[in-house]
## 1
Amino acid sequence: MTETMWKCDQVRAGQLYNRMMFDTRAEAVEFMQRMQQMEPDQMFSIEAIEAKQIWN
């Protein structure tokens, strides 16, 4: 496991719809691009977070 995780949030109508965690930024971007093609009405954001914020 890496020290940095990548969080990808999907937002629909101003509400958090889904949150996925990825080991690399490339995985998060690939997921976001696939989802944007299937569900263009959703907003996506990718953010780097420290793994220790998720697990102790």
Note: The chain has a mean pLDDT of 88.
## 2
Amino acid sequence: MVKHVSAYGAKAIDKARAKTPGKTDGMPGPTDNPATNLMMADVVIRAGSYVARRAIEKGILRGRYGKDVAKNIVQNKTLGQSLVSFGLAKLATKNLPGAVIVGGGALVKTLYDRRKSRGHQRREGDRELIEQAHRDD
């Protein structure tokens, strides 16, 4: 089975190489080096997603806490919080079982929160976020 898959992959790579021109005259990007162009594109995409994520986080919090407090909450995220978010997102996007695990966990957390009273949920969330906003003060 594995030999069949590797042989099939090798044929596909050979076909792709035959169709790919050896010259870089039509290569899109600022340089003729495709690896450099790919790296630059990756940096631009990641920086853009970082800026968009921060803006969305602030926008979600701004309505309830105000502009300055929302900014402080987003800026004072701990390394642990960032790593957990990154890890869960990576797990969810890698494969279907990861997406099911992360989605199931989010569903369980939602159901758990809904069992609590709304006032208790709001107070708990407010307390955590206000503490996060004033962490460096």
Note: The CA atoms of residues 92 and 135 lie 30 Å apart.
